[in-house]
Design goal:
The complex is a heterodimer of chains A (about 110) and B (about 110). Chain A has strands spanning about 5, 10-15, 20-25, 30-35, 45-50, 50-55, 60-65, 70-75, 85-90, 100, 105-110. Chain A has about 110 residues and is mainly beta. Classes of the chains: A mainly beta (about 110), B mainly beta (about 110).
């Protein structure tokens, strides 16, 4: 079982719909990250959370530390939101460095 | 602020050939990461540098992969000789602290 699990793996929705992507993890973490990856490979960091909720524009990220669960929400979705959304957790490794462990990503497609 | 630069963007080689990738991190970022992202998977850390020293190379296949970061700025990742299973996107990232990582556009390697 992967340490970071995302659902769904693929999501197709109509423009304007409210989108939710879920992430569960099984290890103790220092923070959780949501990242966006567009075709071509480039990755952009969206949020870093250690508790509560953060909002940036139409994106909202929440985390429940006790349940080891996080959600990424997109309100009023738009075709330009189409991308792969990756959840990652950071924790201290045996080498003393903060190390990211990534989920496999959720491929989101928004249809006009 | 210029982002993380990587070159080349794409590379196609035959198995048993050698290949090298280059990364120029964001100016002033002491920490540099190389990740391997196989299609359909999340990125996997290959090596992490702090300035020009190696912090974590526990998942680097050292029989064929090598990396260096001379002068604590640019870095190169080399594969010698390449295998079919090395086909992936190689991502470079940098950070100034142990939190937000800034990713480059990646190098897509195809081994035939």
């Amino acid at each position: 079982k992967n340490e970071v699990e995302q659902s769904p793996q693929n999501l197709t929705a109509q423009e304007g719909e409210f989108i939710t992507i879920n992430c569960s993890y099984s290890v103790g973490i220092s923070a959780l990250h949501w990242l966006q990856q567009h075709p071509g490979g480039g990755i952009v960091s969206l949020f870093m959370l250690s508790s509560g909720k953060k909002k940036h524009g139409r994106l909202i990220a929440t985390i429940n530390i006790q349940e080891k669960h996080s959600s990424l929400h997109i309100t009023a979705s738009h075709p330009r939101d189409s991308a792969v959304y990756i959840c990652a957790v950071s924790r201290l490794s045996n080498f003393g460095n903060e190390k990211l462990t990534f989920g496999t990503g959720t491929r989101l497609t928004i249809i006009p | 602020e210029a982002g993380v630069a990587q070159s080349p963007r794409y590379k196609i080689i035959e198995k048993r050939q050698s290949v090298a990738f280059w990364c120029n991190p964001i100016s002033g970022h002491a920490t540099l990461y190389w990740y391997q992202q196989i299609l359909g998977q999340g990125p996997k850390l290959l090596i992490q540098f702090q300035n020009n020293g190696v912090v974590d190379d526990s998942q680097l296949p050292k029989d064929r992969f090598s990396a260096e970061r001379l002068k604590g700025v640019d870095s190169t990742l080399k594969i010698q000789p390449a295998k079919l299973e090395d086909s992936a996107v190689y991502l470079c990232a940098s950070s100034s602290r142990a939190d937000t990582q800034y990713f480059g556009p990646g190098t897509r390697l195809t081994v035939l």
